[in-house]
């Protein structure tokens, strides 16, 4: 059997890759040895950047309606609220999704799986990946379905490995996965809690001996509880959440009662990253490429961004709109972010969970004072939102980014497209509502068509470029635009080229680079 792409793993990353490839009309097969999407909630937060992908796909409203809006973040020490941070709408004016949203991994998988079913691209469930062999022009994959011994051979032009932290694909490709393992063990539980705390609030409760946090989930009084397992449980392998209840109540000192527990698990956390996101005709994405602590809710969202970045590039190559060299940019763009993310989450996690007495004292005494001074300042709130929502990240050093404008702009090629409101269908909306087609968008900001555009012939590129004209406005001027500006926007809403002038040679020259 032949296909263009085979995707190993149907978690959020694999499902997103499949949904994106389906948008481009690419032929693919996605397999997973599970029988259906994940039932456990697992990852919790969905970031603004991920919601912008869902908006482009036309399903963001489902997330908003079925998710849980987080309004406040509080830090409790010894039962007393030491930090109260109003994070609701912290990203106002930065994105169409200015708040933090809980939308569990299980719901993400249900949503994306539903999109694939609607598009007649069902996942091959109960299908186990066995082996792979790379040729110069394809990858041969061996699969086994429904627990039988009958092998299925698939010849694909490319392979995307989304098979998690223990990735068999990564192992067979001999890709390094360097890093470390946290000393402490951790627990996670989905519970129903009876207490007097307000809804839509995340509560962190560090103590001298452990760390515990509570995240609101969909429905009334439903919470995700997670934290470190104290040393007194070090030699215990078989214990339940019931065994931890008294300890949680004693260390947090927050009056509460657990009504029931829907899911409980313990685990060891790792902090690792592969040395190659691309190995021949195979690509690693999500947990198969990088794993880290859950601090900041970045894991699932980073996997979604990996898939989003890779899919449009594969589509362009397969549809002969770019050369294979384009695929090298996947590692060049996503690897640096993964390395930064590992360091970022590791530092946060160390502060929250370390048993070192100095860090423990800082965590319970000095840190709350410093955080209180900073978090309620608008500038700090904006900075934190940009960071945790992943809208700050840019590809300025990417070979796909070309900035030639001489204007003093507040953005450069490689950045995410600016968030600016404009009149669309007689309604004031963000420009992101115009960037929904699976292709490049040439955004021309100015008053009227000029001679340069009259001489511009995009007929050969019309299948991959949509032209959008926007009139100048005070918002654009505040970003430094003083004269006509041409912005070529990638299919993933990052700016590929920013120029004061545009002619056939410039636009054709850029796309010649992709070949």
TrEMBL record:
Its cofactor is FAD. Pfam families: FAD_binding_3 (PF01494). It comes from the Bacteria. Keywords: FAD, Flavoprotein, Monooxygenase, Oxidoreductase. GO terms for molecular function: monooxygenase activity. Transmembrane segments: none annotated. Residues 2-344 form the FAD-binding domain. SUPFAM superfamilies: FAD/NAD(P)-binding domain. PANTHER family: BINDING MONOOXYGENASE, PUTATIVE (JCVI)-RELATED (PTHR43004:SF19), TRK SYSTEM POTASSIUM UPTAKE PROTEIN (PTHR43004). This is FAD-dependent monooxygenase.
